[in-house]
């Protein structure tokens, strides 16, 4: 008698119980485990629910819609004049009345600084602030974490460090530095490891381990990026003319260092214009049939709209694959209003005068600037030198990720911006830049990344206002804004509601679509 013959009668009696066990395990027990894993990820117990309001931003326009969410996705977007009824056995209906329901904001320019400079910021605090500001995804810059993210190993290490610490989804830009700019293998490894694109500086970055690239270095990276269809983002300042060394952190003490105008003069418009001129020259390679057809050049944080923008406009018109962002702080503040010694307003390129601010707004409304970011670039409070108020030596970087939505709305609505335009600059356009096809709009099948906010509610950011980023120094302090975030959903999980975050941080690292 063989073993099989022995087992056969045994198995015969066991077949049905075994089958039942397997089916039960798969249908009941496994989902239970998944649910437990997910427990604490959402403030809402439901995994199937409907959001309703009179002002939902859809691809068909803004109006009364219900948005049905099941699991991590949007499963329907339906126009209807009244909220559906909450009935037993049916998905719960969350009726937000006249509030705005909009795709979550995507901020493609943030410095979370972890690992390495966690005293400046970190995954946990940075993404808590983002969630409270209605941001559902960010793309993190390769600096100022330490080490900077210039190799595959560094990126893998960073992705590991984010585990269990992100409340929203986080993608990563890799860093382009002179050392590897001409080394296709290192760049390909970095892109294979998950960098959504590359980022480089055309001037000193403020930290020693992220040196500046020349236009030639950038040009060398473009064919590699073309192969992957990914962008390079460039900090568009070159030290030209090199007349004033005062902006350098280690410079000799100079008189008038508390004067904002003094700082502004130290980083003239010509720095931006010349960098963009050089950059648009190499961006010609991205044109159809060019050696870098498939790559894309993105100008970050445009501050100057007087001389620089026309060069970008021309490059676009001539067929180069180019986009440009500006930041919420350039749209919210003006040099004339910055008090002496108020280094919380120091950033690079600098905030310019109010006439320039109006030109930035005009360029956005005319479609010449593609999108907005926060360039949330915090440091420890001591590096801001608030007591000395020394603009020349203080860390250059504004913390503001939590206030991007209200600042943009307050200043934009005063200039005729619509909610849909804002949504385009803060969600659809950045989703396109980072190539996140599942994000950026409220549509069937997309990630349920959603912000609900009240455009009419206003508030003052004062000492009592809950600020979630680590070092609570911000240019937005003391200002009044309208546009209050009510709640934020990330892939169907309610991660923030009225001052409360979900108990667990269940955001995911974003991997490139291949
Ligand atoms: N290193 C760094 O984050 N620099 C940023 N800060 C800023 O104001 N502009 C920048 O590029
Ligand atoms: Zn920059
Ligand atoms: Zn930056």
Automatic annotation (TrEMBL):
Chain's gene name: LOC112292847
What are the required cofactors?
A: Zn(2+)
Q: Supply the source organism for this entry.
A: Physcomitrium patens (Spreading-leaved earth moss)
Note the Gene3D superfamilies from the entry.
Metal-dependent hydrolases
Family the entry assigns: Belongs to the metallo-dependent hydrolases superfamily. Allantoinase family.
- The identity of this protein, by name, is allantoinase
GO MF term set: allantoinase activity; cobalt ion binding; zinc ion binding
- List the GO terms this entry assigns under cellular component, sorted alphabetically: cytoplasm
Which part of the chain is the Allantoinase composite domain? 44-99
The keyword Zinc appears for this protein: yes
Q: Catalytic activity annotated for this protein?
A: (S)-allantoin + H2O = allantoate + H(+)
Keyword annotations: Hydrolase, Metal-binding, Zinc
| Function, as annotated | Catalyzes the conversion of allantoin (5-ureidohydantoin) to allantoate by hydrolytic cleavage of the five-member hydantoin ring. Catalyzes the first step of the ureide allantoin degradation followed by the sequential activity of AAH, UGLYAH and UAH which allows a complete purine breakdown without the intermediate generation of urea.
